[in-house]
Amino acid sequence: MGRSSRRVALLCIDPAEDEGVLSLNYSTRKLMAALMTSPRLQDTEIHLVESRSKDPDEFVSRLESIDADIVGASAYVWSTATFVEVARRWKRRRPDSQVIFGGPSARPRMLALEPFKDAPLHIDAIVDGEGEEVMRDIAGLAHPSRDALRTVPGIMVSSNDGWVPTAPRIERAELSSFPSPYRMGLLARQQTALIETFRGCPLACTFCQWGDAKKLNRVFSAEYIADELRALESLDAKGAALIDAGLNLQPQAFRNLAAAEREVGFFRSRNFYCEVYPSHLTAEHLEFLENVQADRISVGLQSFDQEVLATLQRRFDESNFERVVHALAKIANRVTVEIIMGLPGDNPQSFLNTLDRLLDLPCEARVFHCLVLPDALMDRAAPGSDMVYDLQTLKMISCRGWTVDDLVKMPELLGARAARLGGVAMNDWWEFPGRHESRRAPDGAGAGPAAEAVSPSVGAALAAGVTAATGGAWQLGATQWVNGEISAQMSTPEGPLVLEMAAATGGQPSYKSVNGVAYRYRQNGAARPSVRALQHLDRVIAKLSAVVPAVLRDHDGAASRVS
Asked: What burial class does residue 269 get, using C-beta atoms within 10 Å of its C-beta: 0-12 exposed, 13-18 middle, 19+ buried?
């Protein structure tokens, strides 16, 4: 017997390493909210298919259980390879279904790369831009087909000749008319939320996809933002991160946010996270930040080398930059300055000089491995950049100024330095505390934060948990309290590993958050643990999560009584 309703499945992969943060899948939930509230789609079933796994089998299996007629895939660097394979398999099963790609990687240039060159055979259309109205139109077609898709403005439909654009979407709905997934109850309680106040960016840096000055008139009203903050209060959110290109890049959007916060006062008692651009920072922005609970403020630098920045079309005033970092450090719990390893025209020595200079400022330094993104370096790199990059991860392999060997050795050096300074070493990014705030002293140095051994009973409980979780393959070594965190050294078949455990705040970078505890790991050296080692680490965390929350609470209670 046939079914009367159409079924739409929205696919997304959550890459977040901290389970208390929603990550960029917020955008898929906004799309879901738009479809659910369209009067034309009252008889349409909307399904969210979300996972942390990149296994195509999982997504295909879930699509089969839904029997989806329309599949919308959120294509980012971390999800494109998975979803192209899902499209291949799904179209073989349901050739009459429609597969639509949207998101930053849904670009003809990206899908023309060797791993994805057959994409037009399996993907019916790509959405280049905002998806709320487009997906409403697609889901509302009487008989979805590629011919019908050509009547939908603002997309590119696949054909034998590649991607054919439809008519431009001239009129667009006001952003504040779109429904809120927070107000619709589509999101969990007690998370770090995401807030959007405008779309686009006035800058056109070639390493970044964001720049689109045409969208700068696209702002959310003060009333809309205030309603968002009230919804977050009702969800007992830990705080919220601004996902705009920057706090201070769209004057009207900032004024609307400030007015909403004055009315609601959400950030007086909850953490606020944002990005700022030094060249646009004014006293008005600093006053706003002083009146909220600013936990982490990020500042994009990329490099101190003026020639490199000029090649990237990045404006920079060095003296103003340092003034801004010092001003922000007096306001925020943490200032994080972001730089990129492997930029065309940079080189290892210049990059390390930038990192060293940052560590003398009152800030953390966060390093990202350069990605060759569509709408960015993939399309707009300066002539002579000589880029070679991985065609799936888009990580730079070599370019002008960086040899293959340089980009193999630099992550090893960064991992070793992060281990010495008490920083964080992940697969594609590294974080370093400034020298004024290092969590522990470099090897051989006498200064550092006060440390004390955990009690024998706590040490015995942790040691038993590690042994039980790994079948004796790992052994617990020295375990200390360092600035209110537990730092546990472990002996593993792959070498020493330190596991750090602290009360989760929703803002600090972590490998996992379980039962209110954030877990970070670091190794002596940069090699990422093997899959087997990470499986052991997951089992260790699962075992210790039954013990550590109470240990941290007891320690905090004792500390408060002493003080």
From this structure: exposed
